[in-house]
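Worked example 2:
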Amino acid sequence: MADFPLKLDDLIEHVIAQHPDGDPLHLLGHAVQESSQLGELADHLVGHFVDQARQAGASWTEIGSNMGVTKQAAQKRFVSARQWADPEDPDFPDRGPLSRFTPRARSVVAMTKTQAGTLGHGEVTNIHLLLGLLTEPAGLAAQAIKAVTGCELDRVRDTVLATQTKTARKARKSVRFSRETKKTLELALRQALRMGHNYIGTEHLLLGILQQKEDPATEVLRGMKIGYDDACRWLEDELEKILVARQAAARRAER
């Protein structure tokens, strides 16, 4: 077996570097927090390859066999509904994946129910999530869409709405999220982990949508010349600019 890419000393140094003035007990607490993230990373590492195997046509029986578990155990662990059963209820708990959503991302997810209700749709889909992203023009997702497509957000919204049929169905009090939308929330968390972020922002939601190649929302965006790679490049460049600006501001404050 090849050497493991992470070493214990590296993790120890990371905790100390993040909290150089911490006493042993404080460092212990921070180490526990870091270890919980490592567990989550491990879960999403396996989840990534489960998704790849499913896309390649592998059955849950085959996946379970290669994981050393039953088909039922593999499905229970990696079917997205397990983690995001009711993303709107309760309203973003203090613990769990939803607690990491930024206020802007929370607003977007909450807005999806309004978008679905306005169109008379019985469940929240990635189309409604995309429309929600467009209601936050200051969010990185909306900025990325505008920059990469070269279109104003109102035009993007009109293009999205043109693909939908509005019904006269009365909006239900409780609108469920579709399986594809739950998968987007899961992929948004995975994207944040891949980028080394401890929060889930609108940019991660956009990338979560774009990772689902056959989704209607992805197809609309693809028709406007924006795909996962395009959005990822723009967002990484923009996030680097933001980081550089913050570091410069911090240095000025220290003078």
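The chain has a mean pLDDT of 83. The radius of gyration is 20 Å.
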